[in-house]
Amino acid sequence: MGIPMDDDIHAPTVASGPTSGGAPYDASKLSMPKLMQEKERIEEELSALSSVLNSHGVSMRSTLTTFDGYPRDDIDIAQVRTTRVRMIRLQNDHKEVMKYLEKGLHAHFAQLQNTQGVASTNGTSVPTTNGPTSVADASTLGTPFAKVNSVEQNSPAAQAGLKAGDTIRGFGNVNWLNHQRLTKVAETVQQNEGRAVSVKIERKNESGSGTVNLDLQLTPRRNWGGRGLLGCHLVPL
């Protein structure tokens, strides 16, 4: 018979700070392109590790012991714990990278305003006020992060006006900085079943030249006659 184990086996404590990719790095010294690359790398690894947990049928908070305190024998506890520890460290790294991405965006848009200088109105100089002031505002610039591959007829996506070939610039509060390989889009869909979500898209003009930006209202729902809550297939860019 095994030895009972404390239930907090499922909640390892990990020191904060950037620890991914081997030796610690200083995110504050990375350029914006490097920060974006690091963000994508972390999100890809988090997605892969999440699949490992899913294969065991557990999450970050699932208990690893039986009701009477013994280790579960239906999962590889050592692998699950190692995976969880790695994911916690990566999540800490992701927060650090996002912090400096936001600082970089602030600096970038402040520089844009400075280079634009002041606009003259009836001989009076007034400061320009263009440009976003936060990551949320920056998302309105709309760097596309996903593409609509297909849309089912009579689906919630079709009724909202989505078309194959559209690119997604915003999905609720999800944008190019925080979509985490579209996992945040999936979370937003699940959390808003039956409620309209603002979807910002970019669509090519029918003439083939130029694009148009649209703000659609998409309501995830079941029982529309097909699979899923949206009825469309999105792929990350």
Automatic annotation (TrEMBL):
Region called Disordered, residue ranges: 1-28
SUPFAM superfamilies: PDZ domain-like
Superkingdom assignment: Eukaryota
Keywords linked to the UniProt accession: Chaperone, Proteasome
One of the record's GO cellular component terms: cytoplasm
Domain PDZ: 103-205
One of the GO BP terms on file: proteasome regulatory particle assembly
Keyword Hydrolase carried by entry: no
Keyword Chaperone included in the entry's annotation: yes
Family as reported in the entry's similarity comment: Belongs to the proteasome subunit p27 family.
Name of the protein in question: Probable 26S proteasome regulatory subunit p27
Provenance organism: Penicillium citrinum
Organism taxonomic ancestry: Eukaryota, Fungi, Dikarya, Ascomycota, Pezizomycotina
